[in-house]
Amino acid sequence: MSATIRTFILTFSTLCGSSVGSGILRTPTNVSLTSYNMDLVLRWSPPKGAVSSNLVYTVEYNTTVIPYTVGCVNISDCVCELSNLTRPIVEYGKYTGRVRAQLGSESSAWVESNHITPDKDTIVGSPGVTLLSNGATIEVSIKDPEFKVSALRNIYISATYNVSYWKDGQKEKAQHISDIQQNRVVLIDLDPETRYCVQVQINTESNPHPSKLSEVVCESTTTDEAPWMAAVLTFVLMAVAVALLVVGVVYRESISHLFCPKDALPQHFKEYLLTPPDPTIYQAMRNSHPPEEIYHQISVITDHRTVEEGGPLEVARTSCSKQADVSVGGVEDMISIDTEKQ
Description:
By secondary structure, the chain is of the alpha+beta class. It is 21% helix and 30% strand.
């Protein structure tokens, strides 16, 4: 074998990460196990001098009670997320990861990472913040970051919030409210029609590191009359509702009689309604004929007598006789009416 070929082989072996003559790959570097929002991720750098695109890695992890378990196999990326595996991550467990490089049939030695206890070492992400302006006050709503395992309040029961707020452009004069346990806080005594900015951070009890700061969110206040008017309107509506309820309870019988009067039917109506109808009566009424009408003819006879013109003034007697013949059932009656006029 010529010297040139021997030199080429040695150079290629070095670039692939193998120890000269050893047949063993160099190990990965900068192996680190980290946790963000209760996940578990192992990261590393390729072996020194490794340039081959065929280089792959295998990752394992363990706890104090569970031996090493395979995490990722034959991956080309230098990262393995262990929290996505079938075995769930325990927030109070102590974890260690390790990784080795592989090139064909050759494998490097294992390189272990640091130890991590997720609840104490995880990096808590920034909370979400929304603002609602109400007159000269601003309501701050805080949302905890989502954890890969469980929830923030289940792991950090005594977690609190630090709220900082300032007028827009005057962060050096920021005011702070610490150890807030509720996820809603109202900023009072603000200047009306002024823009304020807010930033929030989470403090945990078991984790020595506070969370990342939230994004800076700004909102403008309005006039201070709106909250007062809203409070008065709400009070009036509640007072009216309570008054109507009291009146309804006290005078419920009178109101019931007013809208639902109890009118009594006459006794004979009740008896008639309670007595079942006789079907023979309706049948007889249907088959009966109307009664024959009986009527009689009436005749009126009138006789006038007057005083002659030009004669002596005498008392004249005028008789008007009216006769009416009325015949009812074969009986005749005579009716005479005499009228005397002078």
